[in-house]
Amino acid sequence: MFERFSRNARAVVISTQDLCHELGAERVRPVHVLLALTEESSGVSDLLAAHGITTEAIATSLGLRPPTPSAHPEPTAPQAPLSEEDADALRSLGIDLDAIRAAVERQFGEGALDGQGEGGTQDPDPRLSRDDDEFDLWAARRRLGWREHVRFSRGAKKVLELSLREAIRTGAREIRSEHIALGVLRSDDETLRMVLRMRGVDVRAVRADLENRSRRTA
């Protein structure tokens, strides 16, 4: 199904992963898809903004800090190592730090996460280097590009299925960002519905504009 998505639509789907990592979400849900749509670049984000659907508006409704535009900015100051309490919290989210350490050491040598490679002399890979004595595990994982895949919830999967139906219904040859947006608006997810109600969004009006856009670009 993914091969039917346009480049911008694929970017929307992929960016839901970045958003969930930033927000600490365990699953991609319909509201995360809507958040990703508010940052897409084909013009759908402007259409949504005209109806009051913006990144800031959604984040405010959910009591969240708006996600940063940059996917993974480097820390500006050295950070203390993770405490055992932090590690326990991460394990509760399905993140196994011991497994991460083992994987790093298998690829880059024993002691890689302690700032030393095999033999205890230097880092085996420059992407792991730090100027300070403390090592930031999360910064290293970002440099190495290792990130857990966030699974799509049933509701988010349904949104993608609905986007295909919307593309077919409006006569499009591929699934574009506006079709994903139409799929989101058809979702019965309670959190998403709550956000739209709180922002006073006229769902019918948004749908009409999205459908007009889809037919113009079909």
Automatic annotation (TrEMBL):
GO terms for molecular function: peptidase activity. PROSITE patterns: CLP_R. Keywords: Hydrolase, Protease, Repeat. It comes from the Bacteria. Residues 62-84, 109-131 are annotated as: Disordered. GO terms for biological process: proteolysis. This is Putative Clp protease subunit. It comes from Nostocoides japonicum T1-X7.
